[in-house]
């Protein structure tokens, strides 16, 4: 005979045992403070600062050519994020890119992240830990400093 527990119930709701309490918990990061996931506000402000800086450079030397602005932005991301782990905007707002094991991202990660970031779509598709596709692809995370 079939019992109620065999077919389940809509009253029991979905299984929530695998849902983390805060972004970064599944990655072993703290909930807040140094080393916690960088939230959207800091990320948006950092990219705005980086884009504005690239725009100013392009306006001063290249007559505000939009392709040059994108190229300067990509170069900044490759060089600074790939070597130091942060761009100018990241440094100002107090966040940095690191590998999941805590090490620096490296030049390959800098190149891949820059290409995907310039495509925009991978950066706006995020998971439960607020990691964009560009971070997931390179096994990196953006954390507070």
From TrEMBL:
<feature type="transmembrane region" description="Helical">
    <location>
        <begin position="44"/>
        <end position="62"/>
    </location>
</feature>
<keyword id="KW-1003">Cell membrane</keyword>
<dbReference type="Pfam" id="PF06271">
    <property type="entry name" value="RDD"/>
</dbReference>
<keyword id="KW-0812">Transmembrane</keyword>
<dbReference type="InterPro" id="IPR010432">
    <property type="entry name" value="RDD"/>
</dbReference>
<feature type="transmembrane region" description="Helical">
    <location>
        <begin position="68"/>
        <end position="86"/>
    </location>
</feature>
<dbReference type="GO" id="GO:0005886">
    <property type="term" value="C:plasma membrane"/>
</dbReference>
<feature type="domain" description="RDD">
    <location>
        <begin position="38"/>
        <end position="138"/>
    </location>
</feature>
<dbReference type="InterPro" id="IPR051791">
    <property type="entry name" value="Pra-immunoreactive"/>
</dbReference>
<keyword id="KW-0472">Membrane</keyword>
<protein>
    <submittedName>
        <fullName>RDD family protein</fullName>
    </submittedName>
</protein>
<feature type="transmembrane region" description="Helical">
    <location>
        <begin position="107"/>
        <end position="125"/>
    </location>
</feature>
<keyword id="KW-1133">Transmembrane helix</keyword>
<dbReference type="InterPro" id="IPR016795">
    <property type="entry name" value="UCP021697"/>
</dbReference>
């Amino acid at each position: 005979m079939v019992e109620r527990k065999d077919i389940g119930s809509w009253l029991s709701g979905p299984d929530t045992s695998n849902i983390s309490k805060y972004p970064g918990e599944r990655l072993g990061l703290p909930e807040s403070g140094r080393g916690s996931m960088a939230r959207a506000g800091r990320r948006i402000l950092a990219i705005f600062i980086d884009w504005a800086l690239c725009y100013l450079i392009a306006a001063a030397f290249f007559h505000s050519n939009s392709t040059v602005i994108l190229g300067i932005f990509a170069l900044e991301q490759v060089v600074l994020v790939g070597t130091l782990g942060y761009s100018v905007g990241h440094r100002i707002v107090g966040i940095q890119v690191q590998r999941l094991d805590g090490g620096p991202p490296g030049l390959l990660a800098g190149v891949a992240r820059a290409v995907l970031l310039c495509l925009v779509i991978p950066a706006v598709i995020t998971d439960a830990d607020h990691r964009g596709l560009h971070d997931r692809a390179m096994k990196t995370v953006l954390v507070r400093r």
